Amino acid sequence: MQVPSSTVAGGGPSGKDIAGHEFLAFTLGSEEYGIDILKVQEIRGYEAVTRIANAPEFIKGVINLRGIIIPVVDMRIKFNLGTPVYDQFTVVIILNISGRVMGMVVDSVSDVTTLTPEQVKPAPEMGTAFGSDYLIGLGTIDERMLILVDIDKLMSSSDMGLIESLAT
Description:
Number of helices: 3
Low-confidence stretches: 1-16, 164-168
Shape: globular
Radius of gyration: 16 Å
Helix content: under 10%
Structural class: mainly beta
């Protein structure tokens, strides 16, 4: 079922638009984040990447995914969340954003969560690693809180340089 797309002041989906959607929960440092499960193509263990000369530090490099060369972004480096440690929990979330496939390195993934309208609160204006422009809101499940990220907006932002324009 397609949900009508109204927006809030920040331009992202409003709480009622995303309610009932499923979010993939992942961690970066001590925080837990959520992204729309429909943007996730697959989840892979971290593997060595091929570095690209002169690429920004947060772009780890590229991997060959069944014949498609995709860029891989390390979110810990991008958001200055400490020195990345690659261990058995480190994963690459393969995303499909506006027809462009890319990878996102995170510390770990935990589960897929469905949120109701009552569980989604607006994101407060404060200095989070992602910046409120890229936040949909906060999802609360009992004592747990997920920072819901607008992954389309984040990955298509000009400082990422991965997608030329969402209009294409």
